[in-house]
């Protein structure tokens, strides 16, 4: 294959890898029964007037499977962090003891597990849409190139193989996450 076609294929593969990376990040934020610092990755704290990720203003630890411990680097940030957790609407009730913020993660009900599994499916579907959009973009780029019709068909076949492989990978990641969520 010629260089331009290889470049389009590499670009498509890179874009599809981006969709997978985004999916992995989103799936990490969906809790599966035990406490992880990633559960608070979406929390933004008002740090002297600018919105800052929680991980940049405090240490987030898991002393046990059902507890999150947040120790701010500056004591005067306790109330701001507590407020940010409540604003994030994650369903947690932070407890402030003056030094650390503790969050007891309640066990998941069956209904909540099913909802989380649906949320994971929705994230996987978003990733698949991203991969299909990357396929469409790559095919459009290929059509703009000055190549023979046979070369175009071969290149489009390669793009479809990439799409199929990444879709399969998304399905595998979803199956692992669903199993993790639904296992008690």
Provide structural commentary.
The chain is 58% helix and 15% strand. With 184 residues, it is α+β, with helices and mostly antiparallel strands. The strands form 2 sheets. Strands 3-4-6-5 form a 4-stranded antiparallel beta sheet, covered by helices on one side. Helix 1 packs antiparallel against helix 3 (110-144) and helix 1 packs parallel to helix 4. It is elongated, with a radius of gyration of 22 Å.
Secondary-structure map:
Layout: H1 3-29, E1 44-47, E2 50-53, E3 58-64, E4 67-72, H2 78-87, E5 95-96, E6 101-104, H3 110-144, H4 149-182
Helix content range:
55-70%
| Annotation, overall tally of beta strands | 6
Number of helices: 4
> Can you give the mean pLDDT?
88
- Please state the oligomeric state of the protein chains shown: single chain
Helix and strand run: HEEEEHEEHH
> Biggest sheet, open or closed, and with what strands and sense?
4 strands, antiparallel
* Amount of beta strand: 5-15%
Radius of gyration: 22 Å
Structural class: alpha+beta
What's the N-to-C terminus distance? 51 Å
User: Low-confidence parts lasting 5 or more residues at pLDDT below 50?
Assistant: none
Structural shape:
elongated
Order of neighbouring strands in the sheet with most strands: 3-4-6-5
């Amino acid at each position: 294959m010629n260089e331009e076609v290889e470049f389009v294929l590499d670009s498509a593969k890179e874009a599809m890898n981006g969709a997978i990376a985004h999916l992995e990040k989103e799936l990490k934020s969906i809790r599966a029964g035990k406490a992880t610092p990633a559960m608070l990755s979406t929390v933004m704290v008002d740090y002297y007037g600018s919105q800052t990720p929680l991980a940049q203003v405090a240490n987030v630890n898991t002393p046990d499977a059902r507890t999150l411990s947040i120790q701010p680097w500056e004591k005067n940030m306790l109330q701001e962090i507590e407020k940010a957790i409540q604003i994030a609407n994650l369903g947690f009730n932070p407890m402030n003891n003056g030094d650390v913020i503790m969050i007891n993660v309640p066990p998941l009900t069956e209904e909540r597990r099913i909802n989380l599994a649906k949320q994971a499916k929705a994230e996987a579907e978003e990733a698949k849409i991203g991969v299909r959009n990357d396929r469409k973009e790559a095919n459009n780029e290929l059509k703009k190139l000055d190549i023979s019709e046979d070369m175009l068909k071969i290149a489009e076949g390669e793009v479809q193989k990439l799409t199929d492989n990444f879709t399969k990978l998304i399905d595998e990641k979803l199956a692992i996450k669903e199993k993790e969520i639904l296992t008690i």
